[in-house]
Specification:
Elements: E1 7-10, H1 20-33, H2 40-58, H3 62-76, H4 83-97, H5 107-115, E2 119-125, H6 128-138, E3 146-150, H7 155-164, E4 172-176, H8 179-188, E5 192-195, E6 217-219, H9 226-236
Helix pairs in contact: 1-4, 2-3, 3-4, 7-8
Length: about 240
Amino acid sequence: MSSRELAIGFDADDTLWHNETIFEDVHARYREMLSRYHDADTVEATLYETEMRNLDLYGYGVKGFTLSAIETAIQLTDGKISADEIRQLMALGRDMLAHPVELLPGVAETIEALASKHRLLLITKGDLRHQERKLLKSGIAEHFRHVEIVSEKNESTYAAILRRHVINPARFLMVGNSLKSDIFPVLAIGGTAVHLPYHLTWKHELTDTIPLENGRFFTLEGVRDLPPLLETLLARA
């Protein structure tokens, strides 16, 4: 790796393409489906509890969400939910899996430009087949030298990825929308992190803590602001 080249990791969902908006729409339809049994707050709270209880078994992604949604519906209706309604929930899950990939503004041209100068990695959580399918549909897959689809994003995960690809943490920069998954673990192992906030955040990814690492943590309004930041960091180095 040259002095002008960095290894840059990118989160996928809500960093490169829209994701949480799809879940938000399905949540609204789910609340409506169960509205004759419970109020919206009870539906959401119970669904979240079920998702958290099942997370170790199902992992992240649409398939785990769909199974938890069905389980929650059975619980909240005392088993009165019909087979047709369960089929509707399964159809919602299939629709989410087949949803078109919509890149965020500036992603296509920024990723292409950075790939000519830096070593790009895609590092994302979620269901393997679904994430592979989204990456293939995104039109930007060719620009990533490495693709890592992991069950969790924590310090040990990032450390293992950097070891596997022989990357010095001091030369690694992670870009993502989640402070909990994309920022804190990378800062903890000595890397640099760039936060790209998304207008929606899943409850499980929320945190009230703000990183304090001076010179290794940055917040940008959008991905188009990343190349100028990288030039500044390289000049400073």
